Amino acid sequence: MAVKSLAAELAGNSYPGRGIVIGKSECGKYAVTAYFIMGRSENSRNRVFVEDGEGIRTEAYDPSKMADPSLIIYAPVRVLGNKTIVTNGDQTDTIYELMDKQMTFEQSLRGRTFEPDGPNYTPRISGIMHIENGVYNYAMSILKTDEGDPETVNRYTFAYNKPQAGVGRFLHTYDGDGNPLPSFTGEPTKVDITGDIDAFTNLVWENLNADNKISLFVRYINIEDGTYETRIVNKYTK
Asked: In the prediction, which pLDDT does 205 show?
């Protein structure tokens, strides 16, 4: 699989929905992840990312306009020891709780399915980054219908050991805009990861659709000692 330009992948899709990028920095020193959310409705757009311990959570930008919090208020990022969990829903908590009970990433998601938001049936996308003794690996998951059939659920897990410097994988909920929204197809896209944390954050944010982008989280984790830097960008700031 050829390495594609992350900037081009983002700029060429007006509505990828929610997206996760995981990989390794160009210099090879950092484990990298980015998570972004987009929205088309007023309720979906009424959000910001805020720090929550070592992770983040979503909250309403204007609480008076929050119509339905069920699928849009959650903790996208949590840290469990040497593992960083990144997802697009409350399955973050499921993964955290079950992996804390010694289940694997894949096992922890077997009881979960796509979101109950027909007719879109938004896929649940998740990632796990594991760093231990200077060794880094990661995995990604997508739970989705079989071509829009709500009676089915397809579960796919992709594992990446010894990731290459400057390379990541990009997984998002939708292949593009539409009604209903078409679910992501295929395996996570192999993309380039360039620059330091500020350059990478800017690249992702600037190439997301200006009307639909809402919030972005980026983290660079030092593979040798586990220390990290985080950037959060919100379209709406308090």
From this structure: 98
